[in-house]
Structure formats: C-alpha cells, structure tokens
Amino acid sequence: MTADPSMQGDRLGAGADSGADTGIGLSSRARDGVGASPRRPDGTLKAAGEFAFSSDMWMEDMLWGMTLRSPHPHARIRSVDVSAALAVPGVHAVLTHEDVPGEKHYGLETRDQPVLAFGKVRYKGEPVAIAAADHPETARRALERVQVDYEVLEPVADARRAAFDPDCPPVHEQRVGSHPEHGTAANIVRHQPVRTGAFAGGAEVAELRGQAAAVVTGEYEVGMQDQAFLGPESGLAVPAPDGGVDLYIATQWLHVDQNQIAPCLGLDQDRVRMTLAGVGGAFGAREDLSMQIHACMLALRTGRPVKFVYNREESFFGHVHRHPATMRFEHGADAEGRLLYAVLEIVLDGGAYASTTGAVVGVASSLGAGPYEIPHVSIDAYGVYTTNPPCGAMRGFGAVQACFGYESQMDRLAAELDLHPVELRMRNAVGQGSRIATGQRIDMPLPMAEMLERARAMPLPAGRGELEGPADPRTLPGGVAGTSRGEGVVRGIGYGVGLKNLCFSETFDDYSTARVRLEVVGGEPAVLVHTAAAEVGQGLVTLQAQIARTELGVDRATIHPADTSVGSAGSSSASRQSYVTGGAVKSACEAVRARLFALARERGLVEPDHPEDGLALEGGTVVSARHGVLAPLADVLGEAAVEETRVFRHRPTRMLDPTTGQGDSHVQFGMCVHRAVVDVDVELGLVKVVALDAVQDVGRAMHPQQLLGQIQGGSAQGLGLALMEEVQVADSVIRNPSFTDYLIPTVLDTPPMRIEVLEHADPHAPYGLRGAGEPPTLSSTPAIVAAVRDATGRGLTHAPVRPEDIVGIGL
Amino acid sequence: MRVEFTVNGEDVAAEDVWPGESLLYVLRERLGLPGSKNACEQGECGSCTVYLDGVTVCACMVAAGQARGRRVGTVEGLTGGEGAVGESRLSTVQEAFVETGAVQCGFCTPGLVVQADSLIARTVGAGGPAPGDAEIREALAGNLCRCTGYEKILEAVRTAAEREQAHGTGGAR
C-alpha cells in the first residue's frame, strides 16, 4: 500500500480546499460552525451505552407486542380464530383486521397495504394478527395458538411474467390509487418510458444499429439487497388520557408515519403524537411503517404501554428491501467510442405492495442512461407487483440497479473498441450544461471528466510481486481461513461512475420546517434548534448545530428532540436532509438574526447610521464592519427570547411525461467515481478487495469528518452488493433471513478507502452543498465487479458476484 | 428462577427468570442495563459483546443461568463516574470512538468498544506493542457495523492503543 488513507484524518483530498471553490461566504467564523468537524452531540451517550434507542425503552407496566405472520406467500384467508390465544395466561389482547378502528390500509404512495391481512395474504411474513402479553415469550406462544385457515394459492414469483404475461393472475384483484397513465396492466405499478432523438420520432433500433461501429448487448441482474440496519424495528406506544396515543419510534419521517397511522386508528392527527426514539441506522428500511399501527392498536385496546422489538429474522420480513432488477441493455457507439444510442429495459420487482415502487421507477428510468451524453435513447422501466417480499427504498433508490447495468455496458464497449475504461467514459461524460435522457439540463457544476482523471491518478496499492516475503494469508482472498498462499490469485482493477438525483423528485412538495430560539442561558447566548428531522446516524444533529453557530455567531447550540410538535421536516432519505432541513435551519436563523438587529436598534445599542446590512453576529456579539463590536448578544436580548419558525423548499420539479419521459424531474445531481482493486482466487472463487478509492463532488463539505464516514459507509454497502449481499428468494420465500446466511461486509472484507472530495458549489443549494450519502453506494458496486471481471476475464452479469460465477460453474 | 451474578463489580439478582432468557435479555430488560445491544440475537453481529469472567462473549448466546455466580462486565462499566458536563466520563477507547467519527448510528458502538477494550488490554495492557491493522481487523471481525465502512473505527482503535501505550496500562479489565 503506497499510502495509508486512514492517516488523512479529517483532511480532505487534494480537491477540497475548505470552500475555496464554492464562492459562497459564511455569515460568521463561529467555532465549530459550517466546515468544521465538531463532535456529534449524541456521540458521548452512544459510546457510553447510554443513548436511548427505540428498543431500549421501558415502562413499569408495559406489555410486549408480537406479530403473527403468514407462512404462505400467497393464500386466501378463510377464517381467523384467536380464542385459544386469548385463553393463554398473561395475554392481554389478540387483535386481527376486524379490530382495526379506522382505515384498513396504509401505504407511502398508494394505500394498498392492509394493517392486518384480510381476504388474502400476498407475501410470506405478512402480518395477520397481533398480541400483547406480559412477556415476549408469552405473546409468541399465544400467537402459535391462533387458528388461521388458509387456502394456499400459486405464488406470482416471476417479475417478468407478472409484467408481460397477460395470463398471469393479478396479485391485487383491484388496483388501488395508481396513476392510469403509468400503465393499466394488472401487475404493473408503473411503466415509465423515455424516448429521445430518433426514438422520439418512432425509429426502430435496427436503423441506429446499422450506423454504429460497435454494439454491445447485455442482460444484467441485481439481487434483492437488505438494508441490514443494526437497530431492529422497535417502538413504544403509550395510551394517553385524551384517547390518543404517544408513540416513541425509530423512523425516517415522523410526519409521514403520523399521516398513515392516524386514519387507521380512526383518530385525528393531533391525537397521534410522535417522538423520535434513538434510530439504529435506516438506509431506506424505515420509510415504510412496520409495527407503528400495531403498537398503537394494542396500547389503545389494553390501556397499557406496549413495546415491540423485532428480532433479526422478523426484521427481514418487517421492512421493504431494495428492488431486485433484471435489465436488458443495448448500446451502440461510433469507432471513436462516442455513444450513439441506448435501448434499455429495466424490470424492478416491487413485491406484494407498492411502497415506493412508483418513485423508484421514476429514478431508474430518468437516470437509466447514466451520466453519458447519448443522442438517441429508448428506456422502458417497469415496477411490478408479485408475491415476493415488498420492495421499496434503499440507499440509491432505483439508481443503483441502473448503474450496475450501464457501467457494465461501458466496460464491454471499452473492451470492444480497445479503449481504456476511463477513456471511453471521458469521451461521453456529462458536465455542467449537458442534458440527461429526460431533457433536463444539468445546471450546476458536475466535473465528471476531472473526477475520472483523479480516480485514475490515485496511487495504486503495491502489487503482490512487490511485497517482500510470503504473503500474510490475512491479506489474501479467503483471509484468516488461510485457503491460499498466493497461488491462483489474480489482481484486477475496475472503475465505476454513478449519477444520483438528490432530494425528492417529480413534483413532490419536499419541504422542511425549523424552529430556532435564541436566548440568554447562564449569562451566555444559547440557540435551541427544533425540527422533526430524523437523526438516523448520518449526523444531521451535528450539522444543525453547526449551521446555527455559523448563522448566529454563538458557541452554544442545542438540538431539541425530534417530534411532531413542530412542522414536518420531510424524510431522512434521498440524501436530502442537509439540503432541506439544513436550509430550514439556516432560514429560521436568518429570521432570528433580523429580529435581533431590530431589537438592537430599538434598544439603542446600534446607532441609526449603521445600515442593517453592515451588521453581523460574531462571537456572541453584534458587530459592524466599521466599528467592530457594538453590543454583546446578552445585552441585546436581556430577558427576551427570540424565536422564529421557517419552512424551506427547494425548487419545484415536474413529473416525467408518461409517454416520452421528458421533464425536469430532479432537484440536484450527485456523482461519485470509484476505482476498485481486487485480488481474486480464481480457483476457489474468492475475492479480496484490496482498495476501494473514490472521488466525490459534494458542493461543500459541511462536516468533513462525517462526510468521509458517509462516503466510506456508502462504499461498503456497495461492496456488499457487489460480492455477498442477496436476499435469496425462491418461490417467493426468503431462504436466508439471518446474519448467519445474509452476509454484510465485516472489517476483514472492507479495504482501506482513500477519498478525494471536490467542492464545486451548487448555486441553487444552501451553502452550495450537495447531498452526499447515496452516490458512493451506486458506483462502488460496478467498480468492484469490473475489477473482478478484469482479474478473471468472466462476464459476470449478476450482482452480487457468486463464487460459482468466478470459477465458471454458474447455474 | 433466580439468577445472581456480578455486573461491573456489583452483586445483582434477577427474579422470575424464564430459563430460555439470554444474559442479554436479563441485562437489558431486568437489570436496567440496555447498553449492550440487541441487533441480531444470533451471535453474528457482536453488538451485545460483554466480558464474562474477563473474556468477551456475545451476551445473546449466553443463557442467563450460565452467568450464575460469574463476573459480567458491560459497556456501562467502561465509563468512570461523572464527567465535566454531567455525562459519564468516557474511557480512552470510548473517547477515541467519538473523537475520530467512529460513531454514526451508534448501535454497534457498545459492542465494539468492549471488544476494542479487550484487544488493548491483552496487547498494550499486557506490556506488548500496539496492535497493527491486521491484528485489529482480526479482533473486530465479529463486530458488524453498517454505517461507517470501518475506516474510522480502525482509526479510533489505533488512536486509543497509542494513547494507552503513552499513558500506561490499557483496557478496563
């Protein structure tokens, strides 16, 4: 290894110059403000084991909730009898769909998912009944006594058949709440075409194929990935004297939960009060409801607090996964490697309920052609209903699947034309001013070519031959198992680039709300920031405090617990919270600042001849450019508290046209470039990732240390998808619902990761920042698979790559 | 059944324990010590790592009855009394985790700091050299983290080992 990336500490790579490129100034040079790397405010509690996660909550008289789930992926329910369960001593309630007080269905985009199954079950693991008891084991044993009479039906397990075979039985007898323009076939949630160039005029692919010097076609598959957060689904519902309920819960978006829970409970929204409990990771898996309504129903029925905690096996059934995809891609290029056309078909298996499938299709179609300029594009992306486990949000959201397809194609095209993979990508790279396949112009810096050059120029780890002495088996494929001493080990290098939309797209009213209060506490000015934004581990609490310090020039900033007593902050998804909640906090701080200046004038602390725009807040004082410090904030405020609430919205977006796929559907674009170096034991099919280096443009590094953690963490999740992570589903049944059989990368699987961060400001965004969490998850997967192809010479069309694919005995 | 053992040096007793309960359940739900985490309860993730008679184990894989009469050390035992701002005073390892950015969601953190504490105790704390990266990786291989990609965790353990080496004995147990 030529350099130890871990020694970089918080220094960013060569491109980062603490905002030098951004051209966007900061309001003050506050200590621990924007651009610094202060400690996270919850860090001490978390390291001490004292942070209250949702599964840690406890009340003296609480009961334990438990869920009975369908053993069949597809069955008619003839009857449910809970009487034997109710007779178990220690059981306080056993409820079925008949006990749902209000609406029987919920859902993020389409309310098609039953709170508790009735009529039919559509996936294995669907909740059928719930119980509350004085011990979790009592509840489990009671649920074993529930008699459910099922008429088992044939599963609808094949997504392509569900999409295209008119004889395939419908998963839903009645389509619920979907847009007719997104397709009317029984099992299609959304079909989104995109047509540009000659394809917009109805041209056939054969006409373009004839003009191309090189044509590559490929079929690719991306397996179902699990978010595998470590903190299981859990929460505590407490019945309130007013007939409402207080719910303490780990989620990604309190208000969207509240919007779904209240109607099902038959309660007004203000009687379902929610507080964010400690969240042990999310990655998309907490966008949909899990046990929220169940816990509230049992608490309201028993009059006692009810706690739910899923175990790991149940967690695999308790949340949506990343959509598995099958993709058929064709690309044509001229002799110089300039892309001429692309014809892409992407089928995404949404499983039993819609969840966010519609939006995932919107992303997969709009970004299906990737970050490349292609004159003629035809894309058809489909999201379908099957009786497989429901799929929805996971980090990268539709862009991950497409990226594996188009990057695999770029490598094949480069090989066909005898070009370096980086050279081929540079010849077709988008940049500021380019249009993606939807016609949307990239109106912010996007230095893809520079990023590719930087990735290629990064130092390479030492080759095996350059090392002295015999190889330490721990550094070889097979690792501590000692399966090789270096024989049969071949090195490979691969590249990947990914383009991701950041913030919610397609007309979503994607706002956030922040309440900021400034007052004197113990003689010092102190800021309290209150939002409903979910801290899921990403460090948003740190960022909110940094923004408050920078905008108000004070040291002390505290974050109020997130709850529904303040307006919605939107979801901790789509890499959007730094932008949107960051923007809301900034905006509320600006309003507080304006009121402070007015207060200072009223109190005669600022001379009338000082124009207001010359004033600033620095170091707990009001200062002016001409006269320096005018007054301490403590004097301006006195006993008063200044509080302002502001809503922040990013610019509006449009729906994709349902037939042409044209439209400015996205807010912002993010990009990451990866270079992977792997050693492959070609005899045993084992892979060791030696290095996984990345270049990412983030607009502005708000907190460099946390930023690197996001990029490295996202890269590792992409590594998992490249080499080991797949929820194995056969006949609609998950075969590996455990961490024994579903493997995520350990510290032995994860290599050193050198990260170069660029800061080309997005002029539309607060501080010029760009969401950073998702892009690395796109590009690391294809880079690693490309490196394995480079080492083995095999085609490798399935992510994750399996040992049998490497040794060539694939099924 | 009744189960008596010591936790972090204090005698404790849990009443009415169902024989199927794990040490993890008893710590979390009966003794008010939820610091050890319930991420997989299958012995795969290390989030519930505790000391049992000085050796690290997954508390989810130990039946409560197996702990009878033995010494248990949890993450709560690593901290030393009240710190400056009313929070617990962190150990060298815990401090390094916060400082280097090794804590994101924090669910894996308690298990990792106990495991890292043990590594430092048996290397630097036993008068040996600070562990190298390969040794650190091997020691932490049973502790899953889904957020960080492990780079900051390695940095935290290196930092803590160096500090323990500079300041004397390493590790809590």
TrEMBL record, chain B:
CDD domains: fer2
The keyword Iron-sulfur is annotated on this UniProt entry: yes
Boundaries of every 2Fe-2S ferredoxin-type domain copy: 1-78
Superkingdom in the source lineage: Bacteria
Keywords: 2Fe-2S, Iron, Iron-sulfur, Metal-binding, Oxidoreductase
GO molecular function: 2 iron, 2 sulfur cluster binding; metal ion binding; oxidoreductase activity
Residues of the signal peptide: none
SUPFAM superfamilies (UniProt xref): 2Fe-2S ferredoxin-like, CO dehydrogenase ISP C-domain like
Keyword Iron-sulfur: yes
PROSITE patterns referenced in this protein's UniProt entry, alphabetically: 2FE2S_FER_1 (PS00197), 2FE2S_FER_2 (PS51085)
Protein's name according to its UniProt entry: (2Fe-2S)-binding protein
